[in-house]
Amino acid sequence: MKLPTWKEMPEGIVILEAGNAQEYETGSWRTFRPVVDKGKCINCLFCWIYCPDSSIIVKEEKMEGIDYAHCKGCGICSKVCPAKAISMVEEGSL
Q1: How far, CA to CA in Å, does 9 sit from each of 2, 3, 13, 55?
Q2: How many CB atoms lie within 10 A of CB 81?
Q3: N or C: which end of the chain has fewer CB within 10 A?
Q4: Helix (H, G, I), strand (E, B) or coil at 72
Q5: Which of 6-20, 21-35, 51-65, 66-80 has the lowest mean pLDDT?
């Protein structure tokens, strides 16, 4: 069987309009989940600024939680947190 060349392959995902990420729940892709220790959180909102998936929930200028339906578990929030309030745990371990 001859495999098709890249030119013969059908297009994969096509984004037809900007800002449609909310329509797709991507949280099932995670291997690791961010967990917030509210006692350590200083509400600097670095996690919110750097999250590529806009998965940090902010209310009244405070970090309220994480939108796990869209969080892919990249760990950026954990890396940028100066208070070390966000840790990455293996999905399903809690």
Answers
A1: 13, 10, 12, 33
A2: 22
A3: N
A4: coil
A5: 6-20
Question: Which pair of structure tokens corresponds to residue 89?
Answer: 């745990």
In the chain, what percentage of residues exceed pLDDT 90?
62
Report DSSP state, residue 78: H
Please state, in angstroms and rounded to a whole number, the distance separating the CA atoms of residues 56 and 50: 9
Q: Please, what are the domains in the chain? A: 25-90 (3.30.70.20)
- Whether the per-residue pLDDT at 15 is higher than 70: the answer is no
Q: Which of 79, 86, 73 is nearest to 28 (CA)?
A: 73
Task: Tell whether the model's pLDDT for residue 21 goes beyond 70.
Answer: no
